[in-house]
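Pasting as-is:
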Amino acid sequence: MVQDVHRSIIIFKLRGFSSVSIDGTGSGISKSINVDTKPMIDARLASFEDRLQSFDSKLDDVYYPLKDRIDSLTTRMDELKEEMDMIRRQNAI
């Protein structure tokens, strides 16, 4: 447990947190971000958001046409089932 806390403190320090302290309640670790690292975090986050938007666009370009094709195939399959039922009823007479 103590090693985990020390490891967490080291990780927070390496990631740019200026201070890391464990509160007395044991509810977690409170942290404050170094003012110099805030712009770097914002830049990385903006880059990540741009890549996420690009990924979403590419996914939409593939998903929606595929969904439309599947929907049309499902509709055609239902029509064929109805035709088969009608033929069966005609043959039963």
